[in-house]
Design a protein that fits this description.
The protein has strands at 12-22, 32-40, 46-50, 53-58, 63-68, 73-78, 109-120, 123-133, 180-187, 192-200, 203-214, 229-231. It is an all-beta fold.
């Protein structure tokens, strides 16, 4: 393996149950549960089964296959863009001396806390807690004031002596946005999340791994079934390309010929 080769990931299969308890007006609603399975091969292919849909990602081939098991269709599209960086992972430092682009939003502050080690489903896991503090909302820009036409000054009424002006009402500062906390327990051997809990303004989402089995999955599950109808992406239309002449049809003559 070369120095810049992508390291192989351990192949595995895992089953999860995710529970979402919304916040706000929907807090009284029952929690929403979703079960899904994850398959991962040693060369980086992944498959996620949820309900009647399966999503297969093949990074080597640069394609993503979405299987609809009810319609028996396989929609093939180019690979999805790379996932956002994991909270807490170090980012590339900015070159010194380069000024920041004007108007760019501030990066949220991320704090990581090590929770130590434990065991889940017979696997040794490592826990980390991430606290993501979003930046404060910038103040709303004030509307520009229109220039008032000149008005001749009117004689002012004499003020009563000794009447003080009422004090100006202090402006309340905007409340800072609530932080989002995420507690993640990961198996370093399988490189899979075993348990996670995310709390934020949306509510609380908990994902628990019910079963984790190491080993190479069947390669056939990363392919579209032969009896499924394949839906390929439409080719892009190129402007300015004339259509080929149809046999037996005389093209119209240009004026002046």
């Amino acid at each position: 393996m070369g120095p810049f080769a992508k390291p192989a990931v351990p192949p595995a299969m895992a089953e999860y149950v995710s529970t979402l308890q919304p916040a706000g007006a929907a807090a009284s609603a029952p929690p929403q549960q979703t079960a899904y399975r994850l398959f991962r091969s040693s060369d980086g292919k992944t498959r996620v089964d949820t309900g009647n849909t399966s999503v297969i990602n093949d990074p080597a081939a640069g394609k993503t296959i979405v299987l609809d098991h009810l319609k028996k269709t396989a929609q093939i599209t180019p690979s999805l863009p790379q996932a956002p960086p994991i909270p807490g992972m170090p980012q590339m430092p900015q070159m010194p001396g380069m000024p920041a682009a004007p108007g760019m939003p501030q990066v949220p502050q991320i704090h990581m806390q090590d929770l130590g080690k434990s065991f889940m489903q017979g696997q040794e896991v490592e826990g980390k807690r991430y606290t993501i503090q979003p930046p404060a909302m910038p103040p709303m820009p004030q509307m520009p004031q229109m220039a008032k036409p000149p008005v001749p000054a009117m004689p002012q009424m004499p003020q009563a002596p000794g009447m003080p002006k009422p004090p100006a009402m202090p402006q309340m500062p905007p409340k800072p946005p609530l932080p989002t906390t995420a507690e993640v327990w990961t198996s370093p051997k399988l490189q899979l999340p075993m348990a996670s809990q995310i709390n934020g303004a949306f509510g609380q989402q908990t994902s628990i791994c019910q079963k984790a089995v190491p080993g190479e999955p069947n390669p056939a599950i990363f392919q579209a079934p032969p009896d499924y109808k394949q839906i390929l992406p439409a080719p892009p239309k190129l402007a300015g390309i004339p259509k080929p002449p149809i046999p037996g049809v005389t093209p119209p003559k240009l004026p002046g010929m």
